[in-house]
Design brief:
By secondary structure, this protein is α+β, with helices and mostly antiparallel strands. Helix content is about 30%, strand content about 30%. The protein has 14 helices and 31 strands.
């Protein structure tokens, strides 16, 4: 009995300790051990700012790439000067060869369609510090470790040189052949992977379903193509007078200050084959600094439209907007106008930060995929949907390109914001009813009607660990959390906090905890409870009207939060005299108790019934969303 009583006492003590730990856990956000180390080292600060010891590495890329359609052979050479700004001595580097996703046998999420598979990248030569070396790599096909002949010391640099070739894929999800003489080249060059303060080398294999994590680098890009091929790329074209005939170079220059859409090259122009300099090959030169990637498209038959738009009202700074598309495509004839509207609206409204780059080009492709300063979008029969897709991809300018998001691990940090901005600009373009209806159908309904375990994994779950649940965690759930916080803080304070977060991490590598902590410190509120609820719980959306009690103060509605998420509340109250009103409560309604709360309808008129108006926050079980009041 003594032993049993001791065991019982120990068990009670353990249970009490567990409860105390659970209570304490509600006051702080869980941090994985690698994230904790970053805060301990002072590279990140508890208030959401970069810490006093924050650092990030960078590189200077000088790339030359050649294509001569219809030949599928892509050949390139580059020099990379890589700067080690970390306090660590690097004995090796991780090189990304993302085109190897096309090799047979490589791990990927999704089926390899006919025309998708190639032999991948062949490294023809490799040098370190001017000395030729064999390219001896280990690791996955898309993230390969190479040993350095001598360690790269802190605050030193190393110069790499590569030449390579690969056959362009005939069918791909994000890049490849658009037709026999139109190519879209993305992640076409060897690059040094990110080495950061919380995860060291980014060795995650590219599996085609997840996206990217890149350093901010300076690029010079030379694209060598035959005469009569036009090229569009990330960055600013350095030599239009050398690659374009004078009349076309002049039209392009004029477009840089024109609100009106100019047709730089039409189908009739292309048929005459007199747009470019008439030599066997032309080399188009582009420059872009402090940016995370470069991408390009080329064609001998795509139309070319251009205009510009003021993106910074204070300075009157303009950005060029361009479109490249097949002459038979109808919706792309509106593409430049769509871009002008998007860049202007995003700059002035949400996020309300002037478009940071000199240009945006939309290329007709098939991916609906964003890259810095360039978008690869599929044609659409519905003009309204075409604009929505283009808006979404352009919105990615801010997340992940203005801020260096690790999309591979935390896709909700960019896709959730692009989805939110897509909704907000959609309301301006098409009205709130139409935009909200699309958002519910496209972003919420599939998740809320899917009760599978994977869909209720916490939003903070690394994207790299998700297959089922990836889309809803990254897009809809994250976006709803941002909108819920906007509702709770109000537009003015929410925008102030968002701007503070963006300002702190522009050109840097934020992680979710930087967002959480920035929003708390900038708002002057401890939002830990909210972020615990939306990002670290297995919640979903399901509210229930449990009961209505008459009191001296009015009618007290007991609302149960079955799903657990702290969502805004809208209750439509119908009165016996035939009138009605809707009572709104922000997510702060759930701050004290996230399982159950009371909403009091003030005394006065006789309440006949109450019902939820869920708006964007669709309910998993609508059977208990209405209550007749006796």
């Amino acid at each position: 009995m003594k032993i049993l009583s001791q065991q019982l006492a120990f068990g009670v003590a353990l249970a009490l300790a567990s409860l105390a730990h659970a209570a304490q856990a509600q006051t702080a956000l869980y941090q994985p051990r690698d994230i904790k180390r970053a805060y301990a080292k002072g590279t990140r600060a508890a208030d959401g700012r970069p810490g006093p010891n924050y650092w990030q590495n960078t590189a200077r890329y000088d790339i030359t790439v050649q294509a001569a359609p219809p030949a599928r052979d892509i050949r390139g050479r580059e020099t990379i000067t890589y700067f080690n700004n970390s306090p660590d001595t690097l004995k090796s580097l991780v090189i990304r060869l993302i085109q190897n996703i096309h090799k047979p046998g490589v791990s990927r999420e999704g089926d390899a369609r006919p025309g998708y598979l190639t032999e991948g990248v062949s490294i023809d030569s490799f040098a370190v510090g001017g000395q030729a070396r064999p390219y001896a790599a280990r690791g996955s096909a898309t993230a390969q470790t190479i040993a350095l002949p001598r360690p790269l010391m802190p605050h030193d640099s190393v110069r790499l040189a590569f030449s390579w070739h690969f056959p362009i894929s005939q069918e791909s999800g994000r890049e490849g052949m658009l037709d026999k003489t139109t190519f879209f080249l993305a992640y076409f060059y060897p690059r040094v992977a990110v080495y950061d303060d919380y995860n060291a080398w980014d060795r995650l294999p590219f599996v085609d379903s997840k996206e990217f994590y890149n350093d901010f680098n300076n690029y010079t890009l030379r694209v060598r193509v035959p005469a009569n091929y036009l090229v569009w790329a990330t960055g600013t074209l350095q030599n239009p007078g050398q690659v374009l005939q004078p009349a076309f170079a002049k039209k392009l220059e004029k477009s840089m200050t024109s609100d009106a859409v100019l047709h730089i090259a039409t189908a009739a122009d292309l048929a005459k084959k007199n747009i470019t300099a008439q030599q066997p090959f032309n080399t188009w030169v582009w420059k872009a600094n402090d940016i995370s990637d470069v991408t390009l498209a080329l064609s001998n038959h795509y139309d070319w439209d251009a205009a510009s738009v003021v993106v910074d009202p204070a300075t009157k700074r303009r950005a060029s907007v361009q479109a490249a598309y097949a002459d038979s495509t109808v919706d792309f004839r509106s593409s430049v106008k769509f871009s002008q509207n998007a860049l202007s609206w995003f700059s002035r409204n949400w996020p309300g930060v002037p478009y940071p780059f000199p240009k945006m080009t939309v290329v007709q492709g098939f991916a609906d995929m964003e890259y810095p300063m360039i978008v690869n979008d599929s044609p659409q029969k519905d003009l309204q949907f075409a604009q929505l897709v283009q808006d979404h991809e352009i919105a990615h300018t801010y997340f992940p390109f203005y801020m260096g998001i690790n999309e591979s691990r935390y896709a909700f940090m960019d896709e959730g914001w692009a989805t939110t901005f897509e909704l907000l600009i959609g309301r301006a373009e098409n009205g709130a009813a139409a935009a909200d209806d699309f958002y519910r159908r496209f972003r919420v309904m599939s998740w809320i009607n899917d009760p599978s375990t994977a869909e209720d994994l916490p939003t903070i779950t690394p994207s790299s660990e998700l297959r089922a649940g990836y889309g809803n965690n990254s897009y809809g759930k994250a976006s709803l959390s941002y909108l819920a916080l906007k509702d709770m803080l109000g537009d003015e304070l929410f925008k102030k906090c968002l701007h503070e977060y963006m300002s702190r991490w522009h050109g840097k590598h934020p992680i979710p905890w930087d967002y959480f902590n920035s929003m708390s410190s900038a708002s002057g509120q401890d939002l830990t409870w909210f972020f615990n609820n939306w990002f670290f719980s297995n919640g979903y959306i399901d509210l229930a009207l449990a009961k209505a009690d008459k009191t001296a103060q009015g009618t007290a509605l007991t609302i149960r939060n079955v799903g657990g998420f702290a969502v805004p509340i809208d209750v439509k109250v119908s009165y016996a005299d035939g009138s009605s009103e809707t009572l709104h409560r922000s997510p702060d309604f759930w701050r004290a108790n996230q399982q159950q709360a009371t909403l009091t309808i003030p005394a006065g008129k006789t309440v006949q019934s109450v019902a939820f108006d869920h708006g964007l926050y669709l309910d998993a079980d609508p059977s208990n969303d209405r209550l007749t009041v006796q």
